[in-house]
Amino acid sequence: MNAAHDTPRDDASTGQPENLEDLVVHASGVGVRRGGNKLLADLDWSVELDERWVILGPNGAGKTTLLKLAAAELHPTTGTVHVLGEKIGRTDVFELRTRIGFTSAAVNSRVPGDEKVRDVVVSAGYAVMGRWRERYDELDTERADELLAALGIAHLGTREYGTLSEGERKRTLIARAQMTDPELLLLDEPAAGLDLGGREDLVARLSELALDPDAPAMALVTHHVEEIPPGFTHALLLAEGRTVAAGLLDDVLTAENLSATFGQDLVLERSGDRFFARRR
Ligand SMILES: Nc1ncnc2c1ncn2[C@@H]1O[C@H](COP(=O)(O)OP(=O)(O)OP(=O)(O)O)[C@@H](O)[C@H]1O
């Protein structure tokens, strides 16, 4: 494993890192088992306030499982996970989840098709899916419209979610994930299913977000190096539930590490601040 990332020192008396309050996520010796399968094993990972992580790995590597741990949607079988200073398993996850923005295919499938786009975004503030109040506060609506505008879909606020294209849905969910001003933003394959133009547009918008110093800490799961938005600072490469390499993006994203992660002899090319990979 590449140890490019400085892991925080653990306090010998408590087993907790000394600077836990500076860490958005701290996973230590984490394993997740389901039905005899090791989804994650022996995983250490720390995310600091100003970091933007990309989590890369092949199908079944454990990426979504790791993101669910960070989203306080899953408990580790072994080891400990702290999110925003709270220990998973010892905290009120419902309160904690309001501090985390999370988009995934599972969130997408929970949105009612007849929900208006603006309501999908605003309702995140009430931790409900589905419009339950006749009128939201004007401030909430303004905030939702701002977020939709920042993602280039201000014109879709009154459309029904079920009528949106795949790319428009992804952007709506990213706006929703930001609605509560989260301290941690988790994006599970935000560019999956998008055409080339849609992908490039999303990468550019995520890049803007990543470069915004006021934006929350971020972790983005993807299968493709082409989808890494400029401004992302760190990378965690996962294969078969284990870390292949983790640390600063420039140190970790090498042809050698990528080849080990995907089990193929890969060439990695860099053009400006974007990456491209192909088999040798
Ligand atoms: N409840 C479960 N019981 C048994 N195995 C499971 C369970 N949930 C997930 N798995 C397995 O754990 C492995 C990791 O799943 P996970 O969804 O985290 O991978 P991933 O890297 O996100 O994959 P993908 O890129 O295909 O979405 C997969 O092999 C999956 O089949």
Automatic annotation (TrEMBL):
Segments forming domain ABC transporter: 25-265
InterPro entries: AAA+_ATPase, ABC_transporter-like_ATP-bd, P-loop_NTPase
GO MF terms held by the record: ATP binding; ATP hydrolysis activity
Gene3D superfamilies referenced in this protein's UniProt entry, alphabetically: P-loop containing nucleotide triphosphate hydrolases
PROSITE patterns, A to Z: ABC_TRANSPORTER_2
Keyword tRNA processing: no
Entry keywords, A to Z: ATP-binding, Nucleotide-binding
Protein name: Iron complex transport system ATP-binding protein
Source organism per UniProt: Prauserella isguenensis
A family per Pfam: ABC_tran
